Amino acid sequence: MVMTTNTNTAATTGTTTTGATTTGAVTPAGTGGDAGGGTGRIDFAKAAPKVFRALVGFDAAAREGLDPALVELIQIRASHLNHCAYCLHMHTNDARKAGESDDRLHMVAVWREARHFFTPKEQAALALTEAVTRVADAGVPDDVYAEAAAHFDDAELGHVLALILTINTWNRVALSTAKVAGTDERR
C-alpha cells in the first residue's frame, strides 16, 4: 500500500509528480482513519513520524528493480487476503493506470483457477504472497519458496519478500486506523 498525507510529516521517496498525477513510488500517507473519516483513530504519520518515514523508505526500497505490474499484483493479492479494502481499492486503481487489464485484475483473487491469465513468474509470486501473508497458518512451504526461487534471482526474491512484508504492514496500518476505501490521500 502506498499512502500519502496532506501534512509535511511524510518523507519523499523519489516520486515524480506531474500536474495532478503521480508516478513511481509515492510517499505513503498518514493512515489515521480520522482524516476525514471521523472514526477517532490516530493519524499514523502524525503519531509516529519516524516509524512512518522508515516504513516509507522500506516500501520504496522493496519495489526497486521489480516490474511495476508484478508489484501491484502482489499488493492486490495480499490486500484481498487481509480484507483491506482501502489498499485493494488503491492498488487496483494503480494497476489500471499502469495499463493492467480489468480481466487480469478480476482474476487475481482466483488466480489458481485462472492460471492462463498469469505468467509462471507471476504465479510463483502470488503463491509466495499467499504463504507469507498467511504465515501463521502453515509457515512458508518449501515447495512454494523453491518455485519462487526458480523464477527470481536472489536479489529479486529479496525484493519480492520485502514487498510482501511492506504490503502486509500497510494493510495492518490501514485496518487498525480504520482507513476508508476510496479515500486515497495521495491525490
Task: Provide structural commentary.
By secondary structure, the protein is mainly alpha-helical. It has helices at residues 44-47, 49-63, 68-81, 85-97, 102-107, 120-133, 135-138, 142-151, 154-176, and strands at residues 16-18, 21-23. The chain contains nine helices and two strands; from the N terminus they run E-E-H-H-H-H-H-H-H-H-H. A two-stranded antiparallel ribbon has the order 1-2. A hairpin with a 2-residue loop joins strand 1 (16-18) and strand 2. Helix 3 (68-81) packs antiparallel against helix 4, helix 3 (68-81) packs across helix 9 and helix 6 (120-133) packs across helix 9. 38% of the residues are buried. The model is unreliable at 2-36 (pLDDT under 50).
Topology:
Layout: E1 16-18, E2 21-23, H1 44-47, H2 49-63, H3 68-81, H4 85-97, H5 102-107, H6 120-133, H7 135-138, H8 142-151, H9 154-176
Antiparallel strand pairs: 1-2
Helix pairs in contact: 2-9, 3-4, 3-6, 3-9, 6-8, 6-9
Q: Secondary-structure element sequence?
A: EEHHHHHHHHH
**N-end to C-end Cα span:** 14 Å
Strand content: under 5%
Structural class designation: mainly alpha
Task: Specify the overall morphology.
Answer: globular
- Largest sheet features: 2 strands, antiparallel
Low-confidence stretches: 2-36
Strand order of the largest sheet: 1-2
Q: Give the strand tally.
A: 2
Q: Kindly report the average pLDDT value.
A: 83
How helical, in percent, are the residues? 55-70%
What radius of gyration results from the CA coordinates? Answer: 16 Å
Tally of DSSP helical segments: 9
